[in-house]
Design a protein that fits this description.
alpha+beta, about 45% helix, FAS1_domain, FAS1_dom_sf, Fasciclin-like arabinogalactan family protein, proteoglycan, glycoprotein
Amino acid sequence: MASTQILLCIAILGSSLLLPTNAAVAADSPTPAPLDIESILVKGSQYGTFIKILKSTQVMTQLSSQLKNTFDGITVLAPTDNAFNNLKAGTLNGLTAQQQSELVLYHILPRYYSFSTFETTSNPVRTQASGNEGVYTVNVTSTSNQVNVSTGVNQVQVTNALRSDFPLAVYSLDKVMLPDELFGVKPPASAPALAPAVSEPKKKKVPATATPTTAAVPASSEAADATTSDAGLRRNVEWGFALACAFVGVLSLF
């Protein structure tokens, strides 16, 4: 009996030495690789423009950090290169660096959405973009096999999932979502109020002063005066000549 108990104890001790502990199992199990959004998009092979904007705006770095500390997860709505090519020429270049950041953050939802979650979500759905008017939102309509996202400017269909496991879902879009805050029709600016017109005091009419005029002498009168003057001169000459002749005649008598 004693020998049997001794053998049983030896067997139990040996099995405990051969079986790995929980700590050993945990140490030997591979550590899951950190989620890499860029690798997922690169594998999809048609998201080069979206990757470029994610990097230039530093949103890629922000998302990588966010994924390490998230409890709600993240959903990325990734437009294809063809979706960007279909934008009007100059659309992206016409945006400031801040507006490009808002555009790409508009395609990030701050929680994990599966296709089934989209069906039960309430509108409006918040995005990670924000501006002077607050957080940018979208409206989602979903059926069993299709999800549409409306921005107020355009409507975009969510096509297929590049990744769908919590905490990160990445879906492909056939169009770029255009936020109303950046691309919506802005109301015309109201014209500034005009100051009331000031009426000028009426000027009193001053009667025109009559300017004295010199009576014009008719040309015919001047000519008549000149003729009269010539005739008088001739008459005086004739009288003078007659008097001289008479004086000479008197002198001849003496």
